[in-house]
Amino acid sequence: MSTKETKTREAICALGAKLAARGLCPGTSGNISARIDDGWLMTPTNSSLGELLPGQLSKLDLSGKHVGGDPPTKEALLHRSVYDVRPKDGAIVHLHCTHAVAISCLDPSCHHNKETTLPPITPYFVMRVGKLPLVPYFKPGDPKLADAIRDYAKGHRAVLLANHGPVVAGTSLSAASASIEELEETAKLHLLLQGFKVRLLSEAQVHEVEEAFPS
Ligand SMILES: O=C(O)[C@@H](O)C(=O)COP(=O)(O)O
Ligand SMILES: [Zn+2]
After folding, report:
1. Which protein residue has the closest C-alpha to ligand 1 atom 1?
2. 168 Cβ partners below 8 Å, 6+ apart?
3. Residue among 24, 25, 28 to mutate when testing ligand 1 (max atoms within 8 A of CB)
4. What count of Cα atoms within 13 Å lies in the side-chain half-sphere of residue 124?
5. Which residue range or ranges hold the Class II aldolase/adducin N-terminal domain (predicted)?
6. Mean pLDDT score, 92-120
7. Which CATH class is domain 3-212?
8. For 32-43, how does the pLDDT look when each residue is reduced to its tens digit (9 = 90+)?
9. Model-wide pTM > 0.95
10. ipTM for the complex?
């Protein structure tokens, strides 16, 4: 096994432990994956992200065949679809973090608009997440979900699966993690602000941040 693969295995386990310590992946929910030279490493199905072992991680070859470790997450095909349409990204995190899941369960008429479920409340949300479109509901692991996500993930690093939770891609595990944590915090803020008059960032302020901090 290459040193890079060994390090990636350790990084996935460390990230799982961090997300679990922050209460972002209840039970055995969520999954993490990373690209390696000869395929992908993914978290095994039904595993607790806080208790991952490097040697148990599932390895898929470049054709998507399971070639090592425990059986992969039921969302393996979904992860592969996102990698397919986002060739520059190297890692994906999917969580059932409470506030983002709450947003995913709202009637779409309660979402900010058709392009994004959450509005631009803070510059850091614009930097780390940007727009957050809603992917229509399909049951977890459904190949139709893996197919549907393609159109949304092509132009967005973060998407929200209806009645399910967020999926975020990044150039690295730490980039994907920073984005999904910011997404969850913004979902929480958005819910906290319900009933108040909120000043959103203007379109010009959003552009200013996008230009100053390109992703
Ligand atoms: O919601 C689901 O069932 C999956 O998307 C999930 O979060 C955990 O499934 P596994 O990765 O197969 O454990
Ligand atoms: Zn899930």
Report:
1. 140
2. 92, 93, 94, 129, 157, 158, 159, 176, 179, 180, 183
3. 28
4. 11
5. 10-191
6. 97
7. alpha beta
8. 999 999 999 999
9. yes
10. 0.99
